[in-house]
């Protein structure tokens, strides 16, 4: 049997990881500034993470959500404390799309309304409901098109209000920072006004923090820069540092009813062990502070690179906008053994390094970036 070839691949096979680096079979060492789509939060092969998962699998790897799983309570408690959302409840699932799908469903269960407002260039996942609120027709099949969704321009509060006035809006879904689009930050005023409008029109505010959350920006959630408190917050990626685990943080006014949500694998023993280990390491190694400080240093260094037209993002969620498509530059960086990310905007390179990155790795990247930009100029 062959694999269903939906992924264009980089011709490298990482077989080992350590901190911000991965290695191939020939011991080539690559600087990982992409973390496999922003998943690697605490760094590759953290010893505490390995120990916690290894200890757990030696006891019990899985049982379903039909029995007591105290590890889920432990994870929820730790997450509540570290995120500042200890009064919220947690629903556990397996992927970002599933978290958003459940959030959209919960909102509609709550207010009985049908429609959703989303934003141009949004990315929320590849399941039916999440594709309907994702602004990318090329990844939607005809079955995914929905009359229930209105797309409005990002940061345009008047457009949101106009959409809300049409009625029957159950929820609005927005990324803490638009990631796949090319690192677009919402304005603080916009988020505050969005929360006010949600309260006025009784629309559920869903913050998708799947890429921007878990400490990446220097706060636990990117929306915390605006001081707002959404009704539902979705998490995945950095939550398990590679182990598939995701969740929805749910305001206490949403009442749980048996059977309204569910999952076979969600919140299993190994997923919880991974999630708890990630939070322990984030706390012990002060990775949120590190993301803020090293993120600031990173941005300062990038400001010296004159080819970058626009520097976007917060903390360690960084977009570098050039005046040309970045494909060739990214290929040169791979030759120099550096992984970076692309985005929907062909001129924007995404950097989503592990939160444990240090200044020396930033310096290494800047040297290699300058070298590759020089090489690119000579080629063209
Ligand atoms: C903001 C955001 N939401 C949702 C998703 C979907 O997550 P998953 O691929 O785990 O389903 C992603 C993935 O890139 C994302 O960046």
Can you tell me about this structure?
- With 380 residues, the protein is α/β, with parallel strands linked by helices.
- The chain folds into 2 domains: 14-46 and 289-379, Alpha-Beta Complex (Aspartate Aminotransferase, domain 1), CATH 3.90.1150.10; 47-284, Type I PLP-dependent aspartate aminotransferase-like (Major domain) (Aspartate Aminotransferase, domain 2).
- Helix content is 36%, strand content 16%.
- It is built from 11 helices and 14 strands.
- The strands form 3 sheets. A 7-stranded mixed sheet has the order 4-10-9-8-7-5-6, sandwiched between helices.
- Helix 7 links the parallel strand 7 and strand 8 (204-208).
- Helix 10 (327-335) crosses helix 11.
- The radius of gyration is 21 Å and the shape is globular.
- The chain starts with 15 loop residues before the first strand and ends with a helix.
- The model has no long low-confidence stretch (mean pLDDT 97).
- The chain binds pyridoxal-5'-phosphate (PLP).
- Pyridoxal-5'-phosphate binds at residues 37, 95-97, 100, 123-125, 175, 179-180, 208, 210-211, 236.
